[in-house]
Design goal:
Elements: H1 21-32, H2 36-42, H3 62-71, H4 76-80, H5 92-95, H6 122-126, H7 131-136, E1 151-152, E2 157-158, E3 173-174, E4 177-178, H8 228-245, H9 262-276, H10 287-301, H11 319-333, H12 338-355, H13 357-365, H14 371-377, H15 410-416, H16 418-421, H17 429-448, H18 452-458, H19 463-477, H20 483-498, H21 506-512, H22 520-527, H23 534-539, H24 542-554, H25 562-570, H26 575-585, H27 592-614
Antiparallel strand pairs: 1-2, 3-4
Length: 638
């Protein structure tokens, strides 16, 4: 049997700007003199015997929306504007609510999706003085259901969250379910009157509850819980959040990466502050706001009934606490520029992982935060055999892992590492080599992610070398807290490499020179005519020159050359080869004969590198006399 088409109402109202579905039902039922429950039935909304399910606030089905529009003389855009559907585009926690379930008001308050109770501004409910609002009151705003709405910027006040008479939150909760309107079977109440049960003994079974009935639109001149300077701070924050909730909001240059993740980042940062409290107290500008955050955070950080810290998944119910916590979180986020953000948030992340590594990992894993925030909060374990991975934004750079030199070139090192070198003890050859290796590992991590051991393998370096590098640098950089400086320096190198028009494919060079060997004849030619090298020319080991030439061609260390690798596998004592190659690789070498031979080796390496890049034959003749101008501009010290 088909249901009869509902008749349009004889009277209706135009929705007010920003009005919620609950507010519209209250105003229209008051005008018509019927109960909100009866009006909801007439409008085709889903109703139970004792409630109007609040999940309809999230969005209405096409059939229900069409029937409401037809009965109440509304357009479809007006009906859609009464629900939270449009806000899912700018407030991601709403979009993650499951469809087809009564999540709004019941479980949707977790993860900061909605408020379990309605907030309100008395001045807004009083109305703007127009005839319609004098008769039926102002709008119950839709945004008051969002946890990130805690103040009214129009009237410069914090929102209220409880009735001033009965002191109960304005909740539509009935048992375990939530209703759009509390006590929906009572008519005659003004839309601005409290519908909570009146204080006193509970009503008898089957007796209708008596509403509180206190007016919520009465202007209260009592002192605000915040002093004027703090109130101005939170109002400024609320103004900024309101702009971000608007679909056509303006975006600054700092928001070009991922503006849609701002609220997710804000909520994640607020949880970090809560879990690490009072570590983040420095980001709260006053003692009043600090006390408010302390009231909210302390029960979850130091709860004797629970073991360890617990993730608090719902927002504070107090608007004052919400404003203080979000102000601190917004201060930590700033403009979400990676380098300063990492400096601010790293102590919070470290403290959370110290208290509970599992909670810290779960919080960041499940947050869906931006790649920038995840990079800034990634746990860093340096100086050990492993390193935690972090999601990186590979789209930020255009160079590939194959274009990263396995050992950072010396002129890059001299140019960019000055801020770090000033804070380290006198530089040694070993420490410099490990810093340059670490820089290449970090560049690879920015592109590929993963551990440094995996990054080393990508660069053609043994995984054990990465472990050794972390052990060596961990002793020098961990205690003085210089890892952040190191990462900032490498970020500058990454931007420099990214700006290069022509980059070298080092992976192709490594593949081309894998089987290349320096013949004894070429070795003798390179040594010819250099005073002091007559004996080396006659009986010297060509693999010494081979190792040096290979490291220049591949911008790598002679320790990882095929000559040294082969000698290690066939000889119990390869130290003589590495020591001899190191003599030509030391940039402080002053012996004239060694300097002259090194120049010739570099000149030959330049020709060999060009042949690798061009795909030409790697066997070619070499002149015994090499002018300095034929050498590369980069000093081949490894």
């Amino acid at each position: 049997m088909t249901q009869p088409t509902p008749r349009p109402l004889a009277r209706s109202l135009d929705p007010l700007p920003g009005e919620s579905l609950a507010g519209f039902l209250l105003r229209l039922s008051y005008r018509m003199g019927v109960t909100p429950h009866r009006l909801a039935v007439l409008c085709g909304l889903t109703c139970r015997s004792d409630s109007i399910p609040q999940d309809q606030l999230r969005g209405l089905s096409p059939e229900a929306a069409g029937q409401l529009a037809s009965v109440a003389h509304l357009s479809m855009p007006e009906v859609q504007a009464l629900t939270l559907q449009e806000l899912t585009k700018t407030y991601p926690p709403l979009a993650k609510l499951r469809t087809g379930r009564a999540d709004i008001g019941s479980t949707s308050h977790i993860n900061w999706a909605t408020n379990p109770d309605s907030r309100y501004c008395p001045a807004c409910l009083h109305g703007d003085g127009s005839p319609v609002q004098r008769a039926f009151g102002g709008a119950w705003q839709l945004c008051w259901y969002l946890p990130v709405t805690f103040a009214c910027t129009q009237h410069s006040c914090l929102l209220e969250s409880a009735c001033p008479h009965c002191a109960q939150p304005l909740s539509g909760r009935i048992l375990r379910r939530y209703s759009l309107v509390r006590i929906p079977h009572v008519s005659g109440l003004h839309p601005s009157q409290c519908r909570n049960p009146a204080p006193g003994p509970p009503p008898k079974p089957r007796a209708r509850a008596t509403p509180c009935g206190a007016r919520l639109d009465a202007r209260d001149d009592a002192a605000t819980p915040l002093p004027p300077p703090d109130l101005q701070r939170v109002l400024g924050l609320q103004h900024n959040l309101n702009l971000r909730l608007m679909p056509g909001r303006l975006q600054g240059a700092a928001e070009e990466e991922a503006p849609e993740t701002y609220f997710t980042d804000l909520i994640t940062t607020a949880r970090l502050i809560t879990l690490s409290w009072p570590m983040g107290a420095t980001f709260v500008p006053s003692t009043t706001l600090m006390d408010l955050v302390d009231e909210y955070a302390t029960p979850y950080v130091h709860n004797p009934a629970q073991r360890g810290v617990q993730i608090q998944r719902s927002a504070p119910r107090s608007t004052a606490q919400t404003s203080a916590l979000l102000l601190a979180a917004a201060t930590v986020l700033g403009d979400r520029d990676l380098v300063p953000l990492r400096e601010r948030i790293e102590p919070l992340t470290r403290e959370v992982h110290r208290r509970s590594a599992s909670i810290g990992n779960k919080l960041l894993k499940d947050s869906h935060a931006s790649a920038t925030l995840l990079r800034a909060t990634a746990p860093r374990i340096y100086g050990f055999q492993k390193r935690s991975t972090s999601r990186v934004c590979s789209q930020s750079f255009h160079f590939r892992a194959s274009e990263i030199p396995p050992l950072l070139p010396e002129d890059w090192f001299d140019t960019y590492f000055k801020p770090l070198l000033h804070q380290l003890p006198p530089m040694t050859t070993i420490l410099e080599r490990h810093l340059r290796w670490a820089a290449s590992f970090r560049l690879t991590e920015l592109i590929c992610g993963g551990t440094w051991r995996a990054c080393a393998e990508t660069l053609g370096i043994p995984r054990s070398s990465a472990s050794r590098t972390m052990n060596v640098l961990g002793k020098e950089l961990t205690d003085p807290g210089l890892w952040l400086v190191f990462e900032n320096v490498v970020d500058e190198v990454a931007h420099y490499l990214n700006a290069q028009d022509r980059r070298i494919n080092y992976a192709r060079r490594r593949l081309s020179t894998a089987d290349w060997r320096l013949s004894p004849e070429i070795w003798m030619t390179l040594c010819e005519g250099i005073p002091g090298l007559e004996q080396r020319q006659a009986t010297g080991d060509p693999q010494v020159g081979e190792a040096v030439i290979w490291c220049v061609v591949n911008e790598s260390s002679y320790l990882h050359s095929p000559a040294v690798t082969q000698r290690r596998s066939t000889s119990p004592s390869p130290h003589r080869l590495t020591e001899q190659a190191g003599l030509f690789a030391n940039r402080k070498q002053r012996r004239p004969s060694y300097v002259a031979l090194r120049q010739r080796l570099v000149a030959y390496a330049t020709q060999l590198a060009r042949a690798c890049d061009d795909g030409a034959d790697l066997r070619f003749e070499v002149l015994s006399r090499v002018t300095p101008c034929a050498t590369r501009t980069l000093d081949p010290i490894r």
